Please model this.
Amino acid sequence: MLTKINLPIGPFSFTINTDHQMVVDNLGTLYSDYPRVTQHDFIDFDITITTRSTLRRYVKPQVDFFLDEFAPFKPLPKDHAFAMLEWGMNWCIATKAHHFLLLHAGTIEKNGHVIVMPAAPGSGKSTLTAALVYNGWRLFSDELALISLKDERIYPCTRPINLKNDSIDIIKNYVEQATFSSIAKDTHKGTVSLLKPPKESVDRVAESGRLHSFVFPKYVANSEAKLTPIDKFSAFQIIIDQSFNYHILGVEAFNLISKLLNQVQCYQFEYSNFEDAKSVFSQLVNS
Amino acid sequence: MLSINSNTSIYSFKEGLALFNGFSGDTHFLSPPYDAIITSLTNSPQPKEQLFSTFCELNDLKSEEFQDHFQQFVSEAINSGIILEK
Model:
């Protein structure tokens, strides 16, 4: 029997249907601060995560992800079900929400200043985001920046933070009382676990914000925190590279990025230490 | 006569010009001195020779040294659909 869970998350409404108890348990733990909705007026994404029938229930069990009745991914091992759900939710937004310019970016806010941190996978973006949002910053997303084409504001899509491999223990040691999902081992991204978002960020998920700056983060072992201004052409190129839908939005995206880049500063940021990073980011928005 | 393709969107930065070709979806970044060619053409279409003179004048360049670079730039801009030649 399928359990149905409705999740309003920022500008989107998800419905998750699943027969997998581990998915239900993880949703209950990581989304416990989200409003309980018995019925959506409108559902953007109707998702089903189901265990494969017959033999596959017992021999190397697998799960499928469906958006409506469409399965965009190959089935994954049953233990990866919750990670698959989160990746699938990202995919839903990245492939459908074209009223936003969508960037692969950590996005955080403090005192009305939104910092968007586009970066390639493995740059330390989610780890840095996790450390900052448990130290006074508001979480918009560790994975997606939603920049409205209509009003140029940044919209939160506050969801659990996807941590991989060494980052899981690093954040467990750094964030007191951090709540994590069950661990998925041997995924195509390595070992994966999701960190529950701070309640204050979830409570303010409807509050959009203005862009303060683009920061392109990179974890460099044993480095001192270093924030370096970069030229707008280099920034533009990175933003295009990290956009999910620049090629779809075309001139609308070009105009939006051009306008934003003429209004804000752009920086490269190297770090290895969270305390230094906190200090640099505080100075950035207070300067 | 050279002119800017009407499907080209142009944005000006301190570093130069960003251009978007609405047909191909390609984005180009032009630093000085070549951004001056596009800026000049956005003001009015011009014959190639006149454009070259303007380009050298604006940038205080010696024409014989930049003739080849100019030709190459204009050819590439025509091939990429940023500049039209009629």
